[in-house]
Fold Thioredoxin reductase.
Amino acid sequence: MDDVLIIGGSFAGLTAAMQLGRARRQVTVLDTGLNRNRYAQSAHNIFGHDGTPPSDLLATARQQLTTYPTVKLAHGRAETVSGEPDEFTVQTAEGQSFSAKRLILAYGIVDEFPPIPGFAESWGKTVIHCPFCHGYEVAGKPWGLLYSSPMSLHGPVLYSNWTDDITLILDGHEIIEAERHKLEQRNVRILDGKLRSIEQNNGQVRGVTMEDGTQVALAALYAHPQNHPSASLHEQLGLETKSTPTGSMIVVGDMQATSKPGIFAAGDLSMPMHSVTFATNSGSLAAMGALQSMMV
Ligand SMILES: Cc1cc2nc3c(=O)[nH]c(=O)nc-3n(C[C@H](O)[C@H](O)[C@H](O)COP(=O)(O)OP(=O)(O)OC[C@H]3O[C@@H](n4cnc5c(N)ncnc54)[C@H](O)[C@@H]3O)c2cc1C
């Protein structure tokens, strides 16, 4: 039996594994290899690694973990979970079984692409969700913002750090007159109609076409699609969750402890704001939490 089974071997999960491996604990990381930012050519805003491809960051982390003989990396999709502290069991879709004293859930979230032609093709390239990650490269150019929730109305204020040419595409949603007035005072162009398609070449956005035929030239489109956790283990375990503007997250307390003993959560799954740095930080905390809980 492992001390800790980590489900999800990306930024959060591998950070937790490193910390536990260095504490000479027996750890297995179960992973399906689908890190959320795999659509982006490079990852930004990461200490010491700005501009490095995400796959390179993860490959380096996996390679560095081979130094620690108590850490095992396994490929498989965790599907069912049962048990309690000191005797959790996880079964994979491939028919493997793992048991561990503690669990760290780090299986991330999946973005649900809207069925707009050009969206999926451009996701992570010039259809982007986070200006800190990929805004610098398109600064000073015309940006679009696809409305997804009232949270979208905060976008233009933040984005004014990068560009003063912003078009808000309401895509059929209504906003109150006071909000419209505030945005117009900031020189934000507002398109009320439905978005028909995103015009792009190999993921490089050139503009959008609305249902009424209106066309606007853009260099980037900001979008915050709905998301959902990548697996349902937290539901099987009856963990407390809460809604975020775009999906849901596992509720965590000190040291990333969930609402049930012996179970910790880290990464995008456990927070409303998402970045590699937040994920690695929370992975490190979860590892410390799991370790402390075994030292009583
Ligand atoms: C397009 C895009 C670009 C981004 N660019 C940046 C950037 O430049 N800088 C930045 O800081 N952040 C960026 N982010 C955010 C960043 O990708 C996430 O915050 C980060 O990947 C979260 O790490 P994580 O370990 O929580 O989850 P993920 O990276 O999503 O990893 C989850 C892992 O769990 C595995 N998994 C899922 N289900 C199971 C299962 N049932 N069993 C086993 N394994 C499972 C997956 O295969 C995956 O490897 C970007 C996000 C997107 C969508």
Residues 7-13, 30-37, 39-40, 43-46, 77-78, 106-108, 111, 123-124, 129, 133, 230-231, 267-268, 274-277, 279 surround flavin-adenine dinucleotide (CB under 6 Å).
